[in-house]
Design goal:
Number of strands: 0
Helix content: 55-70%
Shape: globular
Structural class: mainly alpha
Radius of gyration: 14 Å
Largest sheet: none
C-alpha cells in the first residue's frame, strides 16, 4: 500500500506545483481549477494519497490506536475540510 500511495502522493504534489506554480498550501488557493494529470480523475489526489500513506504507516507500525482512533478522526476532519473547500471553490469559480 505504501509502495503505491507514497509515490502517488509525491506525483500529485509535483503536478499541483507544475500546473499552478505553487505548492499545495490551503492558505494560498490556486487561481484556477486544475483539470490535468491526476486532478483530471480525482478532485483531491493529495488528500486521498496522504490518507492512504498514513493508513499504510499505521499498518506498518502495527499501531491499533493510530488505525482505529487517529485515522478515522483524520479522515473525518479531512472530509469536512474538503466540503468547506468545495463550497469556496463553487463561490470562486461557479
Amino acid at each position: 500500500m505504501i509502495v503505491l500511495s507514497a509515490p502517488m502522493l509525491l506525483i500529485s504534489i509535483i503536478q499541483y506545483k507544475r500546473f499552478t506554480g505553487e505548492l499545495p498550501v490551503s492558505a494560498f488557493p490556486p487561481e484556477k481549477i486544475i483539470r490535468r494529470g491526476l486532478y483530471n480523475y480525482w478532485r483531491h489526489p493529495v488528500y486521498l494519497f496522504y490518507i492512504l500513506t498514513f493508513t499504510a504507516v499505521s499498518l506498518i507500525l502495527r499501531s491499533r490506536a493510530m488505525l482505529l482512533i487517529v485515522m478515522p478522526v483524520f479522515i473525518l476532519l479531512t472530509f469536512f475540510y474538503i466540503v468547506a473547500e468545495e463550497c469556496n471553490l463553487k463561490k470562486r469559480f461557479g
